[in-house]
Every structure is written in structure tokens, then in C-alpha cells.
Design a protein that fits this description.
The chain is mainly beta. It has 2 helices and 11 strands; from the N terminus they run H-H-E-E-E-E-E-E-E-E-E-E-E. The chain has one domain: Immunoglobulin-like, CATH 2.60.40. Helix 1 crosses helix 2. The chain binds 2-acetamido-2-deoxy-beta-D-glucopyranose.
Length: about 170
């Protein structure tokens, strides 16, 4: 039930946001996303038709890193964090631009999570991640992509991305 509720919230219906968005979903969705534990409703099996695409394998700290959610099929919703390879913690913050159907969420730290803000069908959502100040390490971008109300893939991971402190 909890996961089903989350999925419905992850794909908010614009006029019915009050219960689920932005106040309620973030916290429960964070719990679901951050430890990457098994949701109560099983995610889809097999390779996800979605990717978290990065365009470089490393960059100096202090520069926003482009990351895109891309699909070979359309999707409705997504939730993405950058996980430090050592600790597994969500690090850094996300930046969104007005015309992109994305919004930031605060899980353990301000804006350390990015999610959709519209249930319009999409196939490519460009995002930008800013490493924490002084960060020197490797992250994996990790996320969940919601294809339809009942089909979603979790634990989608990018290739490793190295941030070199300057
Ligand atoms: C960053 O990390 C790498 C690999 O662990 C290390 O070799 C390097 O000295 C570190 N740089 C700084 C400025 O801490």
C-alpha cells in the first residue's frame, strides 16, 4: 500500500496535489529512495528502458554537472540523487531551470534530490547537479523512474562520476 501510495504521489495529478505534494511526498519518498530498500510493491523486472546519462566522467568541484534522465520509452515521473560512492549518502544539490519539468526536494540536505513537477510524458529531462563545496570523491547518480501508474524501475544508476577538488 505504501509504495502504491508513493507511486501515485510520485505522479501527481495537478489539481490533487494537496495531500501528496509538495509537503507529504518528499519525506516518504525520501525514505523510500535513500536506503534503496525493497518497496512494498515490486519494481518492474529486467533492464530499465531508462538511463541517467552523464556527459563526462569527471569535473572540478564548483561547476554544475549535466545529468539527464533519458528513456527509450516515455516516462511520467522520476526521482534522482547523487550518492557518494564511499558512504552511499546523497550529496550535493540540484539546480533546475524553469522550463524543465523538474523540481528540487530536500531529503537529508537542502535540494539534494530532484524529481518531476509535472506528469506530462517525457523522454529526456536535462538536470544539473552541483557538488558540495570542497568535495573530492566519486558519485553515482541513482534514481527511480515511473513509466506509468503501475510500472516503475528503481535503482537506476549512472556510470561513476569523479569530482576533483580544486
Ligand atoms: C582527492 O582524492 C584523491 C583520491 O582519493 C587523492 O589522490 C587527492 O589527493 C585528493 N585531493 C585533495 C585535494 O584532497
Amino acid at each position: 500500500m505504501r509504495a502504491l501510495h508513493l507511486l501515485l504521489c510520485l505522479v501527481p495529478l495537478m489539481p490533487h496535489l494537496a495531500l501528496c505534494y509538495p509537503d507529504y511526498v518528499p519525506q516518504s519518498a525520501c525514505d523510500w529512495l535513500a536506503p534503496w530498500h525493497e518497496p512494498y510493491t515490486d519494481p518492474a523486472e529486467g533492464p530499465a528502458p531508462y538511463k541517467l546519462r552523464i556527459y563526462h566522467s569527471q569535473a572540478p568541484a564548483g561547476i554544475p554537472v549535466p545529468v539527464s534522465v533519458v528513456g527509450s520509452q516515455p516516462f511520467l515521473g522520476f526521482m534522482v540523487q547523487a550518492h557518494d560512492a564511499g558512504s552511499g549518502q546523497a550529496v550535493g544539490s540540484w539546480q533546475v531551470t524553469p522550463h524543465i519539468p523538474a523540481t528540487t526536494m530536500t531529503c537529508s540536505n537542502p535540494d539534494n534530490t530532484v524529481t518531476h513537477n509535472s506528469r506530462v510524458s517525457k523522454q529526456l529531462v536535462p538536470l544539473a547537479w552541483l557538488p558540495p563545496k570542497g568535495y573530492n570523491g566519486t558519485v553515482f547518480f541513482k534514481g527511480t523512474v515511473v513509466a506509468t501508474y503501475t510500472t516503475y524501475w528503481t535503482d537506476i544508476a549512472s556510470a561513476p562520476f569523479r569530482v576533483v577538488s580544486v
